[in-house]
Amino acid sequence: MQKIHFIPFFILAMSITAAQSAPVVQLPENSVTSDPSRNIEPPHFENFVSLSRRTIGVQSLVKDGTLREFGKFNPVPTVKEVSEFFIHNLDIVLGPAVEGGTNNKAVTNLAGPDDYKGHPKNKLFVKVLFSKAIDTYDEARALEMMGLLVDTGLVQLKDHKGTLTPPYPAIIMKKKEGVLLLESQEYQAANEAEQRRMKIETVTLICEQAAKDAVQYKVYHDDNKPENAFITFAKGSVKAVDIFDYGHPDTYEVMKEVGEQKLSELCKAHWVRKYSGS
Length: 278
Hints:
26% helix; Protein kinase domain-containing protein; 23% strand; alpha+beta; 278 residues
């Protein structure tokens, strides 16, 4: 993968080579596609910043300079400069939607006959970004830092009538394994007490993974609800998690050395308490 250059406009400095002509493939409702032969206008980017939802533990770490919100850069890219980098159609066909994440227009599997840039298509997700805020694209930088980003560009959705929407920015990333807790057979078959236990198991493991990632990749994820991770069950209990949503405003860059245990404990103090009902 071509490395993204972060200075001055880190998330968008990747040139995407589009095919000269490619048909718009008819796909089922809620599927998406792109047509690189179409000369489309880039989306309108809004110059606003999403409000952070910092947990108490993160507030203290931001205050002392240990963590910094993505997007806190000087100088800040202008609307025009950001939009100019998102002018390329992605030469891709996307398949069935995958649930997960709350700030995305769509999260889908990659379809079509070919792999993408050397990556097996069954090992990739495409996130079509709903928000046009500049800070939304900080997710691309977080994914690049973690070795998960494959590409960025534009795609168009097709509605049930087959009509193409205006283009949306999209991120192609390496797929995470597992299922969403609330959609799993184990969770849906469980009683209320068992469901609460599964949620606590999930957020406990998410906190531990988020802390480990912060130390290893210098990216800390703070929106650690069950909806933001795929999980793996073993004998009726949640045994593994894989975080997949690194969007603004709940992702932070680690600026100073911080211990994995400290981050994990701060995270659990908020999220385990939240789902235990205490």
